[in-house]
UniProtKB/TrEMBL annotation:
Residues in the signal sequence: 1-20
Pfam annotation, one family: PA
Coiled-coil parts of chain: none
Domain Peptidase M28 as annotated: residue spans: 237-424
InterPro entries: PA_dom_sf, PA_domain, Peptidase_M28, Peptidase_M28B
Name of the protein this chain belongs to: DUF4910 domain-containing protein
Lineage: Bacteria, Bacillati, Bacillota, Bacilli, Bacillales
Keywords for this protein: Signal
């Protein structure tokens, strides 16, 4: 990725292991003051209060999310963003499990159960050749002809059920049978997606025997799933784009994200009105700040339903946009008084451009920021398409997480301000117009690679 290589190269070339001089050097903090001194924590808190208290729980696909999306879009427009996009996508709002699930081979019936969020087979069932694809990895499935056939897959290998199904689906399979790796058939689910294949769960004993037979002769299986019902709704992403200076454009992109939806219990003050409100304040401050880099501010819908908004957004990105995106800063739960220390998390547990920028800014303004490995927030889909990404949060999480007690009374203005200042400084370090004079001056920040903290956990 060309753009990523340019930014990473410049950061690594200047990386610094000791940071005492950074904190003690007022000239370097003067650089950050162009952004951090303009951050208004009262505005952030007011937005948290409006989202959490005035609107309340913002469950994806409901009227409350519609109200949230309208509010966020209007805020962006008030800040001067003329190109605000509201991006709709379909989600499953409810699902009735199948009433019928069966599987047979040459007249012999097998014990199976349907996965939650499995799609139905055609009425009366579906018969096709069976193809064994091992653990269902992308490479294993690609090595077999499964087009219009039923893929027989073993559980395990660290590959989620939904990924096994998706790999078979992408290779053209018409159905999937997953063989358990232990005794029994527990109730299990795929991701909530109407486009899932008909998918059954099979016992270990019968599945292992079937695979052994399949190794000696071709077999045709009949699977039948009926009664599954999907009820659909619409969720939204909201995107405000800040264009770079016309005469000073690196063609690079930085993305700043936070999910605006919440769970149904509580008011979602910390999770994630806090992250959304910090994002809005950064958009306000940076809206008229000169940059040589495009900045996209994105609030995602349906994060609580499985990162559906961020997955939808990344699927819409072109290869060119992915190649030009040098960093994705994600914020999730950044305001609770009862949470731990400020921290960063990457999906693969490795440092990247975002952790270096974040730690550099944190070191200049407060203290060094460590990182560890965690997915399950909106930075994950960006990582999966090759964009350097990290989530900023406070660890360990507060005990009120996903509970009725996630309320405005537990929001810390100090944590909101710290998050906004650190991310504002980090983003500005990467997006501000580069000039040779500035690079040679003592004002230019020193990149400092973040340290991995094995004891850091959400």
């Amino acid at each position: 990725m060309v753009g990523t290589t340019i930014l990473i190269g410049s950061l690594l070339a200047a990386s610094h292991s000791a940071f005492a001089e950074t904190r003690d050097n007022p000239s370097q903090q003067a650089f950050d003051n162009k952004v951090v001194k303009r951050i208004d924590v009262d505005r952030i808190y007011e937005n948290v209060s409006y989202l959490a208290e005035t609107i309340g729980p913002r469950v994806a696909g409901t009227a409350k999310e519609d109200q949230t999306v309208e509010y966020i879009a209007n805020q962006f427009k008030q800040y001067g963003f003329n190109n605000v996009e509201i991006q709709p996508f379909k989600i499953v709002s409810s699902y009735n499990r199948p009433t019928t699930a069966s599987f047979s081979v040459n007249g012999t019936s097998y014990q199976v159960t349907a996965f939650g969020y499995s799609q139905n087979t055609p009425s009366g069932g579906m018969s096709s050749e069976l193809v064994y694809v091992g653990l269902g990895s992308e490479a294993e499935v690609a090595g077999k002809d499964v087009s219009r056939k039923i893929a027989l897959v073993h559980r395990g290998g660290g590959i989620p059920f939904a990924t096994k199904m998706s790999n078979a689906k992408n290779a053209g399979a018409s159905g999937v049978i997953i063989i358990n790796d232990v005794a029994g058939l527990p109730t299990s689910n795929l991701a909530a997606d109407e486009s899932n294949l008909p998918t059954l769960f099979m016992t270990k004993a019968e599945g292992d025997a079937l695979v052994s037979t399949l190794g000696q002769t071709a077999l045709t299986g009949t699977m039948r799933i009926e009664g599954a019902k999907f009820t659909m709704a619409t969720s939204y992403n909201v995107i405000a784009t800040k264009k770079p200076q016309a005469n000073n454009d690196t063609k690079q992109i930085i993305m700043v994200g936070a999910h605006h939806d919440s769970v149904a219990v509580g008011t979602g003050a910390s999770d994630n009105a806090s992250g959304t409100s910090v994002l809005l304040e950064l958009a306000r401050v940076l809206a008229n700040t000169p940059t040589d880099t495009e900045i996209r501010f994105i609030t995602f819908g349906a994060e609580e339903r499985g990162l559906l908004g961020s997955y939808h957004y990344t699927k819409q990105l072109s290869k060119d946009e992915i190649n030009r995106t040098v960093a994705m800063f994600n914020m999730d739960m950044v305001g609770s008084k009862n949470a731990g220390e400020f921290a960063m998390f990457t999906v693969d547990g490795k440092p990247n451009t975002v952790t270096t920028l974040g730690n550099s800014a944190g070191t200049r303004l407060y203290e060094a920021i460590s990182y560890n490995q965690v997915g399950r927030s909106d930075h994950q889909p960006f990582t999966e398409v090759g964009i350097p990404a990290a989530v900023f949060s406070y660890a360990p999480l507060e005990p009120e997480y996903h509970s009725p007690n996630d309320k405005i009374e537990l929001i810390s203005k100090e944590k909101l301000l710290k998050t906004a200042q650190v991310l504002g400084a980090a983003i500005y370090q990467a997006a501000r117009p580069d000039t040779p004079a500035l690079e040679r001056s003592k004002v230019a920040p020193i990149p400092i690679e973040a340290k991995f903290d094995g004891d850091l956990h959400l």
